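Lab manual, section 2.4: Encoding a predicted structure.

Procedure: take the sequence of the chain (248 residues), apply the prediction step described in section 2.3, and record the output as structure tokens. A sample record is shown.
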Amino acid sequence: MKILVCISHVPDTTSKINFTEDNTKFDANGVQFVINPYDEFGLTRAMWFKEKQGASVDVVNVGVPETEPTLRKALAIGADAAIRINTVATDAFSVAKQLAHVVSNGGYDLVIAGRESIDYNGGMVPGMLAALTNANFVNSCIGLEIDGTSAKAVREIDGGKETVSTSLPLVVGGQKGLVEESDLRIPNMRGIMMARKKPLTVSEPVEASPETQSVSFEKPAPKGAVTLVSPDNLDELVSLLHNEAKVI
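Recorded output:
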């Protein structure tokens, strides 16, 4: 089985986010980037298939040279080879089209992507990728088993879980639950050294016009100051709940 794991290069959630050029551009200065957490769940599941079923695992990223450390981390975790599509990730459609070109030419049986990236939270790329490659698709996947060309997946739905059966080729939009958080892997020294010798191929992009663009960014409003109310002053508490918290 040949597996491709899509890797997004996203800011660490602890990073302080700023914008430049009148809030139209993201300021990457001083920001620590990591593997998108949803993608990391998918990569860990792919490593299970590699170790238990002899699958080969490639990782792919749409991005400029600055994203290569993230791909190298994926290689250190255990992926066999990496592909960087040499273009800026703009909108979901153009990213999906770049990935579809790699999938179509790579002969992959299973593609695992995160349900969404934690920076833009678009949630569109996996579904678009499945449509562009004529593959089956399971989104919000929290469980996956492969037996030959058959697959059984568990996906999260409103109010519960749904188990579905399908066949390869398959695109999965994974999330927390695809593996346990305790199963996530930290690269060790041996993995880091081996990653330096693994192939990282730079592929030039195909023609793909963006369908959307980010016009501007806005930070969330700062949290209001906490107002302390004396337990003896219930009238003031009721007033605050009604006028500020809008409790009826």
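Check your result against the sample. The mean pLDDT is 92.
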